[in-house]
Amino acid sequence: MKVKRRREEIKTSKNIFLSIILSLVFLISFLLFLFVPKIYLVGSSVVTVNINSKYEDMGIKTSFFNKEEEKKIKVISNVNTSKIGTYEVKYFYKNNLFTYKLKRTVIVKDMVAPAIILEGKEKEYYCPNGEYKELGFKAYDNVDNNITDKVKVKQEKDRIIYTVKDSSGNKSKVVRKIISKDVESPTITLNGDNNIFLGLNESYVEENITVNDNCDGDLTNEIKTINNIDNTKVGDYTVTYKVKDKSNNESLITRTVKVRENLKPNTIYLTFDDGPRDGTTDAILDILKEKGVKATFFVTTNGSDSLIERIVNEGHSIGIHTASHKYDIIYASVDNYFNDLELVRQRIYNLTGVETNLIRFPGGSSNTISKKYSEGIMSTLTREVINKGYQYYDWNLDSGDASFATNPHKLYNSVVNNLSHDKYNIILMHDTKTYTRDALSKIIDYCLSNGYSFDTLDMNKMPLRQKVNN
Ligand code: ZN
Q1: How many CB atoms lie within 10 A of CB 283?
Q2: Of 224, 289, 447, 450, most Cβ neighbours within 10 A?
Q3: In which residue ranges of the chain is pLDDT below 70?
């Protein structure tokens, strides 16, 4: 009994001893856990980055007594992302007597493939009667720059394969599909204007047309011309040109032929610009009425509205000059010209209901002053006004009332001495001038007694167009 009890006592003290040891071990571990600083990398220990990209190191984390200690960290890095290579980032963490170290490897690599840029498209057609001609290509790399000379070109049936490899072994490939088929329509080139004026009863002579096709070459002889011109009737007619290439690609182009009455010889077309003006235009209208003569007025936005109404009501022809008559405005741009023109067109329409398409350019279509404000504008305007359905009239007899003929006597002489029985006479005058007003009666008397007739300009008549110089 005693022995048994003794044995139990020993066993109990052994257990107590073991517990103490275990507790100590636990305590020491715990103290170590508290006192030994902890250090570890954030992110991977080996990092790969692209050349020329921005490398941002993720750093390390340290703690001591569960407290972060960034101040005691020193980082040394030789990473250079602009150069291919292997670099190291070293981290030092000083804690009391000890320095703890960590490192990370950073690999800078070129991982970007070069770019191949094709001239032309990825799908190209070539003529069935010819062969595909390389349209060209370029190759650029982020590190090696222009590596066009390294491109390898290989043809496999209907595919051209372009491959290239940069100095780091990054590869690129581009494929171009080539198809033997003519998909382009022939090009028809019209010589002469899109709009042609033809005198009544005159025969239409086709101006040269040329046709060129990308595959079949000159196809001028293949052209089919369809026209509905009736040269016995004033009107606008269409000439259609059609051509097909050997692959059935068709092209079509049209030209407008405007059949107009020719201006008559031995006839005088009095034209008055720049008005109306109170005090002159009204007197001029009185004279014309008295003599039974009709004239053509190219008006502005000046003068009384009643004068515009009188011009129309008394059977004269009315056309548009301009609103401002300022060269630096109207000839500064095509838009300016048409905006200005519209103001006068509206004025005439609002007052009289007449929608006129007659025009006279300030300075005439041959003026060179417009060059000062816009090079080539007259070439554009003379084409554009006809495209928009207008007709412009210049003159073949300048009365001189805006230049040298500054009194009635001079003006009378300058007109009557230049009249012709053999041709038509479009006389440029200005109803804004007092001496024009004062000379008019005598001029008309001379014309009538010398066998001339008077007529007006209108849309049915052949325009008189001077040579464009700008
Ligand atoms: Zn004028």
Answers
A1: 17
A2: 447
A3: 1-5, 10, 34
